[in-house]
Design a protein that fits this description.
N-(1-d-carboxylethyl)-l-norvaline Dehydrogenase, domain 2, Rossmann fold, binds 1,4-dihydronicotinamide adenine dinucleotide, binds 1,3-dihydroxyacetonephosphate, 11% strand, alpha/beta, 2 domains, 8-stranded mixed beta sheet, 50% helix
Length: 334
C-alpha cells in the first residue's frame, strides 16, 4: 500500500519513516529539490536528520501529483499556517474519498478555524479528514523510541485506517471522535510551552513550570468545552501528554523559543532564521485569542504570551501581572 506524506520537515520525515517501517510505500513531498535528492540518493534528510538512515521505501518528490499517484491516503505535515494552501493544491489531485490525516498543530490566523474545518472547506467530505496529535517529538519517534498518539475523526473508519497504517510495537496509536478537542489541545500546548520557557528563562523554578502546565490545562479545558469538545480529551495523550512533553523536553522548539529568545528580546524571525523550524505557539497565541473572544473564554496565560511575543510586553512585568488577578475557584468556567 502507498501512503503520501506532504511535508519533509522533522515531523513529516519521522512519520514517513514510521509508515515505511510498517511496510508502506511512502511518497514524500518536499519543497526543496536538494532535500528530495538527498532522500532518494542517500536515504537521508540531511536538513533535519543527517544521522538517521531512512527506509528505501520512502521516495521523495517536489510534485504533488507524483506524491499522490496510486496513494491510498495522505498525511499533511506542513506548518499549520500553510494548511489552506495545501488543501487547495490537494483538491486538484485527490478524489472525494481519499483519507486525509492532518498532523500539523495550530489554528488558522484571522478565522480561528481549526485544521479539519479548514481542510473541509477546501476538500469537502469531513468524514475522511482526521487529525493526529500526541506527545511525539520527531527526534525520538524517528529513532523508534516508544511513543503514543491519537488519531481523531468524525468517522471511525477513517480513524482506524490511519491508526492501522501508523501503529507498531513502538508507536501506539489510539482513536478518538473528539476532533475539536484534539485540535485545540494541540494548538494550546505550544503556547503554554512558550510560557514555561519564558518562566525558566527568567530564572523561575519547577513550581512555576508546574503551575503554568496545570493552569494551562485549565485554560485548554475551558476552551475545549466551550467549542463542543470533551474535557476528558485534555487528560489524554493530546492534552496532558503533549503538554508535559512540550513544556519539559529539550527537543521542544516552543519552549526553547521562550527560554532562549523571548526573554532575551529576540524575535520569532530570529528563531526561524537560526533554526529553519516553526514555533507554532507564537501564532497560536493569536489565533486562540480569536476563538476566545468568540466563545467568551478567559485565557490569561495565552493572553500574556501574546502580549509578550507580539506587543513587546516585558516578560517579568507580565508574569507579575498574571499573579495579580482576582482569586477564584480552581475550575472556574467548567
Ligand atoms: N517536530 C515535531 O516533533 C512535531 C511537529 N508537529 C507539527 O508538524 C507541523 C510541521 O512541523 P515540523 O515537521 O516540525 O516542521 P519543521 O519546523 O521541522 O520544518 C518546517 C517545515 O515547513 C516547510 N515549509 C516552510 N515554509 C514552507 C512553505 N512556504 N511551503 C511549504 N513548506 C514550507 C519546510 O520545508 C519544512 O518542511 C507543525 O504544525 C508542528 O507543530 C507535530 C508533532 C511533532
Ligand atoms: O508537538 C511536538 C511534540 O509533541 C513538537 O513540539 P515543538 O514544536 O515545541 O518542538
Amino acid at each position: 500500500m502507498k501512503i503520501a506524506v506532504i511535508g519533509a520537515g522533522s515531523w513529516g520525515t519521522a512519520l514517513a519513516q514510521v509508515l515505511a517501517t510498517n511496510g508502506a510505500n511512502v511518497g514524500l513531498w518536499a519543497r526543496k529539490p536538494e532535500v528530495v535528492k538527498a532522500i532518494n540518493a542517500e536515504h537521508r534528510n540531511t536538513r533535519y536528520f543527517p544521522d538517521e538512515e531512512l527506509s528505501a521505501g520512502i521516495v521523495a518528490t517536489t510534485s504533488y501529483r507524483d506524491t499522490l499517484l496510486r496513494a491510498r491516503g495522505v498525511l499533511v505535515v506542513t506548518p499549520s499556517h500553510l494548511l489552506r494552501g495545501v488543501g487547495r493544491a490537494l483538491a486538484d489531485v485527490v478524489d472525494a474519498e481519499m483519507p486525509v490525516l492532518i498532523c500539523s498543530k495550530g489554528a488558522e490566523a484571522d478565522t480561528g478555524l481549526l485544521p479539519v474545518a479548514v481542510m473541509e472547506q477546501e476538500l469537502g467530505n469531513r468524514d475522511r479528514i482526521a487529525v493526529l496529535s500526541g506527545p511525539n517529538h520527531a527526534e525520538e519517534v524517528i529513532k523508534g523510541q516508544p511513543s503514543a498518539s491519537v488519531v481523531a475523526c468524525s468517522s471511525p473508519e477513517t480513524a482506524v485506517f490511519f491508526r492501522d497504517a501508523l501503529a507498531n510495537d513502538t508507536f501506539r496509536a489510539y482513536t478518538s471522535d473528539d476532533t475539536v478537542g484534539v485540535e485545540l489541545c494541540a494548538a494550546f500546548k505550544n503556547v503554554i510551552a512558550i510560557a514555561v520557557g519564558v518562566s525558566y528563562g527568567l530564572g523561575f523554578g519547577d513550581n512555576t513550570a508546574a503551575m503554568l502546565i496545570t493552569r494551562g490545562l485549565a485554560e485548554m479545558s475551558r476552551m475545549v468545552v466551550a467549542c463542543g469538545g470533551e474535557a476528558l480529551t485534555c487528560m489524554g495523550l493530546a492534552g496532558a501528554g503533549d503538554m508535559v512533553v512540550t513544556c519539559m523536553s529539550r527537543h521542544s522548539r516552543n519552549r526553547r523559543f521562550g527560554e532562549e529568545y523571548v526573554v532575551r528580546g529576540r524575535t520569532l524571525a530570529d528563531f526561524e532564521a537560526d533554526n529553519h523550524m516553526v514555533v507554532e505557539g507564537a501564532l497560536a497565541c493569536k489565533t486562540l485569542d480569536v476563538l476566545a473572544r468568540e466563545h467568551g473564554v478567559d485565557l490569561p496565560i495565552t493572553d500574556t504570551v501574546r502580549a509578550i511575543v507580539w506587543e513587546g510586553a516585558d516578560p517579568r512585568e507580565a508574569a507579575l501581572l498574571l499573579g495579580d488577578r482576582p482569586l477564584t475557584t480552581e475550575f472556574y468556567g467548567l
